[in-house]
Amino acid sequence: MASGERQRTCRACGKKFDYPVKDSAATRHHCEDCTAVPAETRKTLERLNSRVTQLENQLRRLSEKPTV
Ligand SMILES: [Zn+2]
What we know:
Blueprint: E1 6-9, E2 16-19, H1 32-35, H2 39-64
Antiparallel strand pairs: 1-2
The structure holds zinc ion (ZN).
C-alpha cells in the first residue's frame, strides 16, 4: 500500500475510497460523490448507511452460525 494513503469507508454511502487523493474533493469521512450532496441529505444517508452496516453485520453473524 502506498505510504501516506489510507483507504477509507465513506460514512454516507459506504464506498471504499482512497484518502487523501490529489485533486479529489473527498474528505476524511466522505467520498467525492457524497461531498457533493447537501449536508442535510448526507445526514440522512449516514443514518441509512449505519443501519445497512448493522444489518450486514447481523446477517454475517447469522450466516456464520452453523445450521442446527
Ligand atoms: Zn460516499
